Amino acid sequence: MMDWTLLENAERVAQTTCLRIIDAASEAVAQRGRFSLVLAGGRTPRMSYELLAQQVSDWGRWHLYFGDERCLPADHPERNSLMVAQSLSSMVPIPTAQIHPIPAELGPEQAARRYAETLKAVLPFDLVLLGLGEDGHTASLFPGQNHPRGLSVVPVHNAPKPPPDRVSLSETTLGNCRHLIFVVTGEGKQLAVRRWRRGEDLPASRINPTKGGEILIDRHALP
Ligand code: 6PG
Question: Which DSSP helix (H) or strand (E) runs through 215?
Fold first, then answer.
């Protein structure tokens, strides 16, 4: 079950997302001694990451993972790992060994195999962050694209959102978490939100986290 939380604007969504992450981290570290966070790519979550960098001081128990990655060189400006480095991980004293980028520069198939190995020791995640594309995609799971069943991390080709080659955690893997948050802002998402709320079969609506989840959405994205 997903709870929809309506907020005034993108800033309020970012502030609320940051608070939810900090709460989840406190619970995870207190109960299990570590916090595994799956980061969303794209533009929407960047403000939340910048707020985290300002508000969190103890990074010693945090482990950062990625929900998806574009198959581009590791230093390419369009890489999600670079966006996270610029907005968060290069700004805080998190041990490099606790940042787990998807090696998407290896290409979809090899990177998916490698990252599936990485995740074996991690699941379930403590918190998964996801964005929503204008067409209802999330991570790099796009409408109309099917992936081999049983893979925890899938290779993606011909993605409608460039670049065409990507790597993505599967719907099942993304839902294998204690908390899940979608962050959705801006008018460009209205159609996807309308389709989602109407119950259409979209990659975003196929992710059913074991313990429920939350959609943090601003007024501009609500139809
Ligand atoms: C990616 C992202 C993708 C993103 C949505 C929304 O690699 O492109 O993981 O799933 O979350 O496309 O992107 P924006 O936040 O930029 O609107």
Answer: strand 213-218
Is the CB–ligand 1 distance for residue 155 below 6 Å?
no
Domains detected in the chain: 2-218 (3.40.50.1360)
Q: Determine if residue 168 is left, alpha or beta; phi over 0 gives left, psi from -120 to 50 gives alpha, anything else beta.
A: beta
Is pLDDT at 211 greater than 90 in this prediction?
no
The residue whose CA is least distant from atom 10 of ligand 1 is 139
Whether ligand 1 lies within 6 angstroms of the CB of 161 is answered as yes
pTM equals 0.98
Q: Which helix (H) or strand (E) holds 154?
A: strand 153-156
**What is the Å distance from ligand 1's center to 95 Cα?**
26
Residue 132 alpha carbon to ligand 1 centre in Å: 6
- Mean pLDDT value of segment 14-42: 98
Neighbours of 8 (CB within 10 A): 10
